[in-house]
Amino acid sequence: MGVFANRFMGIAEQMGRALQKTSVSTNIKERLDFSCAIFSADGGLVANAPHVPAMLGSMAFSVRWQIEHWRGNIRRGDVFLSNAPAAGGAHLPDLTVISPVFDEAGEQVLFWTASRGHHADVGGIVPGSMPAMSKEIWEEGAIIESMKIVEDGVFQEELLYEAMVVAPSRYPGCEGARSFQDNVTGIKAQAAANQKGNSLIASLIKEYTLDTVMKSKQPPRMPSGTFSRRLRAKKDGAYLKRRDFMDDGSRIRLQIRINPETGSADFDFTGTSPQAYRASLRCNWNAPQAVCNAGIIYTLRCLVDAEIPLNQGCILPVNAIIPEGSLLKPSKDAAVAAGNGLTNQRLVDVILKAFEVCAASNGCMANFTFGLAQKDGVAGGGFGYYETIAGGSGAGPWWVGEDGIHCHMTNTRITDAEVLERRYPVLLREFSLRVGSGGEGRFRGGMGVNREIEFLIDMHAGILSERRVFQPYGMVGGLPGARGENLWLRRNGQLINVGGKAACYVKAGDRMRISTPGGGGYGTPVHSAGGD
């Protein structure tokens, strides 16, 4: 069983390498903001390559939705596309491409392959499709619940154009995808990665026979008693309670109940704040259920020290109780752009806090966007750029926090300075560690970073970030990490603190300086290990 688990994992990883090689997107080729996975015929996770933790366990929601939606109408040569949170998506820029793997006769679906990648722009009210002020989901770009992007082997570009360019522009203040051909090449690269996976699965079946492979795909489960014991060993008692707050005061409340008899764990989020919806200027940090599920799975993989692959076996013992209409299970039309970059990070902090494993991390992905809208009248249309910026991780009982790292739910990279400046009209003025931002303690929290970008032409810029109000907490006497700060340095010398979530129209010569939070310290400070 272990041999096949590793073979399936190897196939998912090769899918990822194929996607990176064939993509032209900086998000996928440079930043590695994608994930690839294999699923059983009923949508159970067989193998998920360890790419982006935010996508762990969440793609299964999308795959199962497509299976149910197209049941009885799935043929060899079909490939499906989806990004809607209501259909298992995370936020709209994350496009998921799903392909069936048929038997030799083309009659039975044996597996599914899937790839999810963050596209730099999918339309909406601002370039980059990560608006700071969206109230409803249609403001964030194209919404695709389901589409046969490839039917009978033919790529449906006209259908895609209607969905990504024409449909979003019908909403007030919105545009369609600003770099449609980039979306086309990205989706084709994802479909090619899936095909790579399909071919490798076919080779595996040829090597071991269909019967052997189908028997071996059942995910290995950790024995129930082992699962509960290892969780409880992290903290005495079966009932763990914690809460934390987003910068606007929204609450995430968690109670964990571990059942030693069944080997299961209930993650109960009853008492979490209601969804942010329409009522305020900024209310897009709702996190769809698939995102919440991914946060739980990622954290359990960190907590439980056991050799178990990233598949359905590590999902089965977990039951998530999430109130309808809450911040973690919003309604279909709620804005969600920031939920997959801010709220999921806070969710992880809450779970780790419940087990008292380590201090808080920087608590957000610091989502930074810039670009031009089509209405700006530039030759060749608009464009969008997106990146996440590292911060400090929290210290623990025997470790110093990591400096300048994409921790927890992001596992991406920052775009190389040379690539950034060659492809976009900006200059990178500074990218450095933020000395002194890590919380002091017996073990110091990791330092955040300073990133300053100068704009060479007038354009739109935006930031979605957290921990600008509440500091990343320390633990067991450790001190909190420094808050983050976002500054707009205008060319006339004016300095503006834009807050945690902002959209600006910047002029040539303006700069944006983003200082990310440090991680919290662990233990009472005596002389901090890992000093600056």
Structure report:
- This is 5-oxoprolinase (ATP-hydrolyzing).
- Keywords: Hydrolase.
- InterPro entries: Hydantoinase_B (IPR003692), Oxoprolinase-like (IPR045079).
- Pfam families: Hydantoinase_B.
- One of its GO terms (biological process) is glutathione metabolic process.
- The chain is globular.
- Helix 1 (about 1-20) runs antiparallel to helix 5 (about 180-210).
- It is α+β, with helices and mostly antiparallel strands and about 525 residues long.
- It has 10 helices and 20 strands.
- Strands 2-1-5-4-3-6-7 form a 7-stranded antiparallel sheet, sandwiched between helices. Strands 14-15-20-17-18 form a 5-stranded antiparallel sheet, with helices on one face. It has a 4-stranded mixed sheet with strand order 8-9-10-11, covered by helices on one side.
- It is about 25% helix and about 20% strand.
- The longest helix has 29 residues, at about 180-210.
- It folds into 3 domains: about 1-215, no CATH class; about 220-355, no CATH class; about 360-530, no CATH class.
- The mean pLDDT is about 90.
The number of strands is 20
> So how many helices?
10
Structural class: alpha+beta
Largest beta sheet, briefly? 7 strands, antiparallel
Q: What series of H and E elements makes up the topology? A: HHEEHEEEEEHHHHEEEHEHEEHEEEEEEE
Radius of gyration: 22 Å
Share in helix: 10-25%
Number of domains: 3
Mean pLDDT value:
88
First-last Cα distance: 47 Å
Low-confidence stretches: none
The order of strands across the largest sheet is 2-1-5-4-3-6-7
Identify the overall geometry. Answer: globular
Beta-strand fraction estimate: 15-25%
GO biological process, one term: glutathione metabolic process
Organism: Purpureocillium takamizusanense
Protein name: 5-oxoprolinase (ATP-hydrolyzing)
EC number: 3.5.2.9
